[in-house]
Amino acid sequence: MRLVKSIPNMFTLGNLYCGFLSIGFAAYGQYNNAAILILIGMMLDSMDGRLARMLKADSSLGKELDSLADIVTFGVAPSFLVYYTYFNQFGLLGFVVAGLFPLFGAYRLARFNISSDKTSLSYFIGVPITAAGGILALLTIFGDYIPDIITTVVFTALSFLMVSRIRIPSLKDIPLPKYGTIITLFLGSLLFVIYKGTYQHFPYLIYIATPLYIAFLAYRFIKWKGKRETE
């Protein structure tokens, strides 16, 4: 029973490790690998909370661990990725600017953790760091087709939107079929990268994470469909 209760934390730790690996890949110049690892982290992050609720394994430890993992995978890792692929041409200034993203992200997470209305399923206050980090990863994957000025604008906008008071619609309570846009975006990006043949060392973790995530989505769909038929 104790092992079952720890499953959500294992997914969270997997998310954190993806962030660490992403930083390593970026340091070695394998930027698309680094970006894909951030997207894998997004998959794991979307699963740990739901698994905790399914297994009735919610805990304060899990919530704190999730925030620590998020700041690494969706804050530090994307900022390193953008620095190595673009901001490094500006020298020390570029390094300083790239470091602002995880600072804003950390503040956003801390504010969320102490917020009295954080249980709302209909909206977030400010852009979630997970979404912001994922967008930067996608910008890297399609970097050859996106002007540098767009990257700069999006990076700056996301930094400030994370700490803004703007209400962002939440997907937590949306039925699974409406996740189609997100799934299509991820799979489309993955197929594009494979088609372009940009990998010499494709991260093997994707072969584990993707089938696992698809199985999770299938389970969610069957559960949602069964619940709808009983209503």
From TrEMBL:
It holds the Pfam family CDP-OH_P_transf. It catalyses: a CDP-1,2-diacyl-sn-glycerol + L-serine = a 1,2-diacyl-sn-glycero-3-phospho-L-serine + CMP + H(+). It comes from the Bacteria. The keyword Lyase does not apply. The chain crosses the membrane at residues 20-44, 90-109, 121-139, 145-164, 176-195, 201-222. Keywords: Lipid biosynthesis, Lipid metabolism, Membrane, Phospholipid biosynthesis, Phospholipid metabolism, Transferase, Transmembrane, Transmembrane helix. It is found in: Endomembrane system. One of its GO terms (molecular function) is CDP-diacylglycerol-serine O-phosphatidyltransferase activity. Its EC number is 2.7.8.8. It is a multi-pass membrane protein. NCBIfam families: pssA (TIGR00473). Belongs to the CDP-alcohol phosphatidyltransferase class-I family. This is CDP-diacylglycerol--serine O-phosphatidyltransferase. It comes from Bacillus salitolerans. The lineage of its organism: Bacteria, Bacillati, Bacillota, Bacilli, Bacillales.
